[in-house]
Design a protein that fits this description.
With 319 residues, this protein is mostly helical. The protein is built from 11 helices and 4 strands, in the order H-H-H-H-H-H-H-H-H-H-E-E-E-E-H. The strands form 2 sheets. It has a two-stranded antiparallel sheet with strand order 1-4. Pathway: Cofactor biosynthesis; adenosylcobalamin biosynthesis.
Length: 319
């Protein structure tokens, strides 16, 4: 019970640290990991391969780049003790989440839209989505940014908190590494269709439960009835098993329509409609950011209340 309380306090400290400092602008460990992963992929996946061989190489590549980091993350708990180990955990969770960074990216889009600076808004949204930002209308820019806030809130914040609470520092490190590889190798093109499949499937498995907890969180903090209805009816139409529930519930909670056709460099992708209501605007982006932030606060308050109760430090708690 005391261990659970300490874990919750680590999450609180990491969120506060993220709020105060944001992401490191230089020497972020994930940036270094990404470069290492890219170099490894170029070496083992540089030539076209048969499907089976590409799949095997993808498994090998994933394990090759993840294993050394996981060994280090696991070994730290034996090398460090006391306050040093506690600080290492706070730092690990802080580096894994990106609540302030997510909000900053979203507000760069909404501020530009509110100022009538469409070109700047397209440049800003191009930093956070892979679609052809230059072909987006203002509504398309707002929708893309809102979708990114909702989906990345699940991937970059809620899932990281979940895996730290479930499996400690090794758990949150593994989640962020796998999620990073999925973002880098999870494309359905000739180069990555098979090579990136293992990382993508592991990412799907690790995010399955956190995504649904995130969707429930969005529903509780917005238009609950509409969010749950959209989740039930629309999530299964989305091509991602985890983004579907998160984005459908988020769009319903906000009372807006997201999804639909989106331009990419290789053409228009016909995506299902998510949510219900008017189209997205700059206000929608701000509301999506606020929904993620309120969700984090709800998690921390609920977890802290539970932890204090289990330790007999709250009226009516175990004594």
């Amino acid at each position: 019970m005391e261990a659970f309380l300490v874990a919750v306090l680590v999450c609180v400290a990491a969120v506060v640290l993220d709020w105060l400092l944001g992401e490191p602008q230089r020497w972020h460990p994930l940036v270094g990991f990404g470069r290492w992963a890219s170099a490894t992929e170029e070496k083992v996946n540089g030539q076209p391969q048969a499907a089976a061989k590409s799949l095997i190489l993808g498994v090998f590549g994933t394990l090759a780049v993840i294993t050394p980091v996981m060994v280090l993350a696991t070994a730290l708990q034996f090398w460090l003790s006391g306050w040093w180990w506690l600080l290492a955990q706070v730092a690990g969770v802080w580096l894994a989440i990106s609540l302030r960074g997510l909000a900053e990216h979203g507000r760069a889009v909404s501020t530009a839209l509110n100022s009538g600076q469409g070109k700047q808004a397209r440049l800003a949204v191009g930093q956070i989505v892979s679609r052809d930002a230059g072909s987006l209308t203002d509504e398309g820019v707002a929708a893309a940014a809102s979708e990114s806030m909702l989906e990345n809130g699940a991937d970059a914040v809620f899932s990281s908190l979940f895996w730290y609470l479930v499996a400690g520092l090794p758990g949150v490190v593994l989640h962020r590494l796998v999620n990073t590889l999925d973002a880098m190798w999870g494309y359905r093109n000739a180069r990555f269709l098979y090579f990136g499949r293992f990382a993508a499937k592991v990412d799907d498995l690790m995010n399955w439960l956190p995504a649904r907890l995130t969707a429930l969180t969005y529903a509780l903090l917005g238009n609950t009835r509409l969010a749950l209805s959209c989740w039930r009816a629309q999530a299964k139409t989305w091509d991602s098993p985890n983004a579907g529930p998160v984005m459908a519930a988020g769009a319903g909670a906000l009372g807006v329509t997201l999804g639909g056709p989106a331009p990419y460099t290789n053409g228009i992708k016909q995506r299902p409609v998510l949510g219900s209501g008017p189209g997205a605007t700059a206000t929608t982006v701000e509301e999506a950011i606020a929904l993620v932030q309120r969700g984090v606060m709800l998690w921390l308050v609920a977890l802290l209340t539970l932890a204090l109760g289990l330790n007999g430090l709250w009226p009516g708690g175990a004594g």
